[in-house]
Structures are given as C-alpha cells and as structure tokens.
Fold these 2 entries.
Entry 1:
Amino acid sequence: MRGRSPARRIVFLGPPGAGKGTQASELARELHVPHLSTGELLRAAVAEGSPLGRSADGHMRAGRLVPDDLVLEILRERLGRPDAARGFLLDGYPRTEAQAATLERLTALDVVVWFDVAPRTLTERLSGRWTCPRCGSVYNVAGRPPRTAGRCDLDGGELVQRPDDRPEAVEVRLKVFGEQTAPLLEHYRRRGLLEVVDGSGTPSEVAARLRQLLGVPESL
Ligand code: ADP
C-alpha cells in the first residue's frame, strides 16, 4: 500500500509471457492513465510501414531488442503527449541498464512492479497467445480464451499470433531477458522502487494481487 492515492507512474518489468500487457491494459483503464507499451508502439510502426517500423521489424521477428535510438524516439514522443502528464503505466521499457538510465532522465517513477513467473509457465503462455492487432487485447487459448474463437471480445477484430511467439524467437527473447533485463531487478531494488508480484495463476488472480500491492481501491 502506498498511502491513499494509488501510484500513477508505474513500470511493469518481467519476462516475455509474464502477463504484463494483459494486466497493464486493464489496470491503466482503472487508473485513468495511458498504457504505454513499447512493444505495441513498435508493432504499430511496423504495421504502418514507417521508416522506424521497417528498421525495427527484423529485430522484433528474431526476438532481439530493437536498437535503443529507435525505441527512445517512439517512447519520447509518447511520453510527451498530454495524457501521460498525470501518470502512465509503462510496459516493455526499460529492458537494459542503459534504458533505465535514459528513463531516469525523462521522468521520475513511483513504483516498478516485477512479475515473478516460473520459466515453464512463460513458454506455455507464449505458445498459446493470440492478440488483436486493432486494439492490442491479449488472449490465451488455455487461460483466457476469447468469447468467440478467433475474434476480439472488444472490437471483433480477427486475432493473430505474433511472429515473435514462434519457438525460435521465444528462445531468443527469454535469453535476452535473462542477460539484459533481469539485472534491472537489483537496479530498482537498490533505488527502493521495487515491488514483486506473483504472476502465476489466472489473470484475475494476478489482477487482485496487483491491486492490493498498488493500493488500488476495489471501487476503481
Ligand atoms: P514481450 O515483453 O512479451 O517480449 P513486447 O511486446 O513488450 O513483448 O516486445 C516485443 C518486442 O519489441 C521485443 O522482443 C523487442 O524486439 C521489441 N521491444 C519492445 N520494447 C523494447 C525496448 N524497450 N527495447 C528494445 N526492444 C524493445
């Protein structure tokens, strides 16, 4: 718990498949702050075919990190929009010590939530994951199926599997996470910003733990 008002400048950190995106999109709606996902912003740039998207595409498909300057360009633009002034839920950034240092120069943070999930669960979740390319909603054939097979509950869009959820790319993403992102756990622990959430179980179980951790009232 963090006093009466819930934290508003939040970072979600954790391995691919930990459920950050699923939790972030719902919590952001409840807190009335934007959900800033660098993965989503990059996928939108790829879909648009912008020069930035064309440069990022190959890295993403292979499961590698997109070069810092490209990610920073889209993040800076998004964080600078008026709706991010009263808070944000940042998902997918930072992923390296260098990105953490950059973020410190861009904004202060209230809390960093680390999603703790067993490696075997991660691969299961990633291989069953389907997303809506229109609104970014995430489903899972096992844990959170859409009401109508293959269609988004929110806008009826046709669900797709991400190219980087193929087994070869998943392997690279998990390796990159272990080498480059996992050290950020200690980075934020040292700064007194870290909270750890148990990311196992159903999305609603995790959501309830998160609410308690962040002091979000049930009524919100
Ligand atoms: P996940 O966390 O499940 O891997 P994301 O949607 O957050 O999925 O990211 C998908 C891909 O987008 C990453 O594998 C990487 O290629 C790219 N990406 C997202 N955020 C960053 C970042 N901060 N730095 C570099 N690349 C990034």
Note: Strands lie at 9-13, 35-37, 88-91, 111-116, 129-131, 138-140, 194-198.
Entry 2:
Amino acid sequence: MSPKDPGPAISPRKCHGGSVSTPLESWVEESARLTKPAKIVWCDGSQAEADRLVDDMLRDGTFIQLNQKTFPNSYLHRSNPNDVARTEHLTFICTRKKEDAGPTNNWMAPEEAKDKVRPLFDGAMKGRTMYVVPYILGPATSPYSKVGVEITDSAYVVASMRVMSRMGKAALDRLGSSSDFVPGLHSLGDLDPERRFILQFPEEKLIWSVGSGYGGNALLGKKCFALRIASWMAREQGWMAEHMLILGLEDPTGKVTYMAAAFPSACGKTNLAMMVSALESQGYRVWTVGDDIAWMHVGSDGMLRAINPESGFFGVAPGTNGKTNPNVIKALHHDSIFTNVAMTESGEPWWEGLDGDPQESLVNWKGEKWTSSKGPAAHPNSRYTVPAKQSPSISAHWEDPEGVPISAFIFGGRRARVAPLVYEARNWQHGVFVGAMMASETTAAATGAVGVTRRDPMAMLPFCGYNMADYFRHWLDMGPKLKHPPRVFHVNWFRKGPDGKLLWPGYGENVRVLKWMLERIEGRADANDTPIGYVPTRASLTLEGLSVSPGTIEELLHVDSNDWAEELDATGKFFEKFGKRLPAEIRAEHNALAERLQRVSLTPK
Ligand code: GTP
Ligand code: SPV
Ligand code: MN
C-alpha cells in the first residue's frame, strides 16, 4: 500500500523504543496519513480498555444498555438500516489476472481498485478515533494460527473483534516485529452503499473495506481474512480454509468423532454445532469446536486436523429459542452484543421465534415503537455476538493447538425439494463433486432476494478468494494427502411436503442423522445404493421417540430421478462457466451421475 496523499504526520506508538519502524508501525502510519484520524488508539484487549469503549459507545448511542440484571454486560447495537447484511455485489477479489478470481467472483485489477477506493479513505477518519486492532485467528499457541491487524474507526467493530478473535496484546506478542500479518483497513466512511467496497487483495494479502459497519463486511478477521484471503493461502500452502462448523459427536462409550459441515449462510451451522442432542439419554452428545469457519491441515498422524480460527459466535437471532438452541440461550445471557434485534419494555433483547408473538410494547430493530404493519420487529439477519467459551456445549478440545481430527465432511443447504434428508458420497472424488454441485435457497445473511435457489459450492460462493475451478482442483488434491480422508455426506433439513410444510423437525433431532453417519464411518449402518449415493434405509435410522410418520420418512429419503435429471442440467450449466479450467474429475463425476440416472430410468419398476 502506498498512499500518495501527504497528511499530518502522526507518529505511531513505537513498540521497541528505537527509531526504526516495524512493518506494522509503518502501515499504521501510512493509513493514518491517508485517513487523517483525530487520534490513534492501539488496542491491548484489556478489560479496562473494553470498559472504556463501552462507556464511549453508551455515551454516543452506538450501544444501548440492555437489562443489566437479566443480561449483565450486554448491549444492543442498531446498524444503519441500509447496512444490515453482507453485500456480495460490492465485494471484490482483486488479482492481477481476472481469471485468477474466476467467473463466480466480482473482480477488479488491484491498482484500479486502489485508485477507485483510495479517495473514499482519504480523510475518512477526520474527527474520529482510529483503532489499531491486532488479533490472532486460531488458538494462541497453535502453529496453524495467523495474525491479522484491523485498522478501524468503529468502536463497535473493536468490541466485536474482541469477542470473535484473540484480540490485543497476545497478537502483538505473537507478531513481534515481523511482517507476517494480514493488514485490513476499515472505515465506516459515510455508510452510503454507493460508496461501499469490500476489497480483497489475495496476492499481497491485504484487505480494504469502506462504507459498511456490519458483520462480515466490517469484522475483517471473519470472511475477508479467515475465508477469502485464507483460502488463497491454504491453496498455496496445502491446507484448507472452509465455511464449516466443527463438532464432536460423543457416543455411549465416550468416544468423540469430529465432523465439519459446510452449509451456506443462515442454513444451520451454528445450530448444528451447538445442538442439544435428542438422543442424549442414549449417550449421544454434541460438543462445539466452531460454528462458522474451519482451518484444516494434514496432521502428523495423516488425519485432517481442524482448528476454529474464531473465538466467538456471530449467530442469527431469529428462530433461536430455548428449544431450538438452549445452549446459546444460556450463553447469551451475559457479556454479549446484540445487533438489530428488537427490545422489550424491560430492556431485554427480542426476536421472532424467541417466544410467542411480538408485543405492541416492543421497540423494533430500527428503534421505533413496533406495530404489526412495520414488519418483523427484529431484522431477519439480526445477530448475537457471544464468546464461544460461554456455551455449555464448548468442547474441551476447542483450543487444542493441533486441532481435532475430522472424520466426516457434511455438505448441505436449504432445498424445499430434490435433496434427501441425508446421503453419503461413494468416495473422496465423488464427495468433492457432491460439494461442487451444492445449491441452496438464498437467505437474509446477504442483501438481495431471499429464497432463490443458487449454486453455492461447498457454501463458499461468496467466500472463495480465487477461481472456483482451482478450488475444486485443490479439494481433489487434498484427499490423497490424507491417510483417512473424511467420509463425505450431504444433508437437507429443509425439505418440504406438497403442503409447503417442513418434513423434518430439525435442530436437536438432527443428531439422528449424525448418528447414522457415525455408524456408516464405523461400517455398521445400512444404506440403499442410489444414483446420487448411499441413502439410509428406514431401519438404519434411529427414529424412536420421533413423531414423524413412516410416509414422511419415505418422502424425506426419496430420490426422484426426474428432479435429479433437472439438477444435473443446472449443475452442468454452472460448471460450463469454468470452461477448460474445470477439473476433468468433476466432469467425469457429472457424466457418471448422468449415466446412473439414465440406467435407473431404464430399469423397469
Ligand atoms: P451464518 O452465521 O449466516 O453462517 O448461518 P448458520 O449457517 O450458522 O445458520 P444458523 O444455525 O444461524 O441458522 C439460521 C437459521 O436457520 C435460524 O433461523 C435457525 O433457527 C434456522 N435453522 C437452523 N437449523 C435448523 C434446522 O435444523 N431446521 C430448521 N427448520 N431451521 C433451522
Ligand atoms: C455469513 O453470512 O455466512 C455469516 C455472517 O457468518 S457474516 O459475518 O455477516 O458474514
Ligand atoms: Mn457464515
């Protein structure tokens, strides 16, 4: 980065007393020259600093105090109503060659992007405080963790980064005077979507984000670094950065099997990772390692080892209640931040699906008195930000420096039709194809239409920092590097019947599907060999205590050849975008599926 604009010389804090600046100090100085803040604060992550920030935010209205008896140290933040979700159309991968960003990413050439966006940073922090936020992604002692530094003029972002990452002194200590960190420059700018850009420069491992204060647009450690930049690093260095939860399934003997699952945004990762198992009385429990992102390396034991780069959950509030996710309800009763939820008369956070109907006494997410004509009281993408360690389900191994060994990958999405409750891929290569052909109905996590089915390979469509054809190649190459590559499954909790109602109860009942997977891994569960893969027999599923009719189970497991022929066409069109860059193995799997479907349709019933 080389801003040409001269500005007031603001000397950065000198870490080492000497006159020679570290790479971090130089970058902070350059950024200050460009953005021209009134002052610079280096964040140390201490409690005193957090308290100061809260006081400042309560004073200027960024934070609203919640009921401190029932929600101690918890606050509500209302974002600008035009800034409530990720904005994918304003998110760019800036590589020298357009082909390296690929046909599924927005692209700008690096210099063009900088020339266009630099003026938006010029003087953007006048009269504001510039916070320098060093953070570690991953456990502080893990060899797989990485350091990032976010410069931001949003105190809300600082408070959120303190929950979501290991922020402050620990990160500076790890970094020392090294240049091995990912710089991310963030300014709220004027919050006008016309002047909003989220730029990733994977070749120089740099992030620029301006014009948004919300979620993945603004907490640069999350999607920008831990997925877009990290996915690029992971391919260069032979590991994987994925949009995946990590959970441990404990069986009655106490053995824990770890699984990682990729579902698109707002499709159930947090809820699956934190579930209270419906089979707890039989000895099956779920432990949480992570709820959104997994960084995975080939371990010295030949297993794929996963760490969670984050240290908190930024979870979807609507639909969360004591039945669907009791663990998070316990976790978020203190030291939590709520964004764009509604508030009750007694100063408690509220959202649709929490309990009962909305009351006229509510204040909605915009801070207005709620009436039924005003739509949902909480924004559909309203969220809680809660430290991971506050969940009763947190795994004893969630900060293991080597990570946990992954035995299964689970792909899935929202599909009202087509995809059965669960199926298993035939092998690694087929599994990669199953991930590559994933599709899901869009949600409120990103701006734009909701409920539109789109291709979202491995749930990485908005997050892959490079050409997705090369990403498929990387996936194909990872399997053979592993002594025991994870078994690959696909799930769909969202299949609907002809009446439009969900067929599967979901949430804690999903453990029944996890148990089937475990038994497949252990070679104990039956399955039918269908064109798309192995689908459970009815008898192989543990269904006691579940009030779902046999007919409904049948519908949930049904593989319809016509539906899948259409699916095949849609994926074929999607894969065409990649031209010759699409790996031959993906094409071969596509042809093999076509043949298997053909054979079934020719077999007399
Ligand atoms: P991001 O944080 O955006 O990546 O989302 P996520 O994948 O973690 O999704 P999350 O678990 O927050 O769930 C999103 C929405 O789906 C919430 O409203 C949940 O209540 C709902 N949901 C989650 N799991 C299930 C399920 O098994 N069945 C049904 N019907 N809804 C679910
Ligand atoms: C997602 O959209 O996948 C999220 C929320 O996890 S955000 O941090 O806003 O990207
Ligand atoms: Mn996510």
Note: Residues 263, 265-271, 291-292, 315-316, 318-320, 324, 445, 493, 502, 506-507, 510 surround guanosine-5'-triphosphate (ligand 1) (CB under 6 Å).
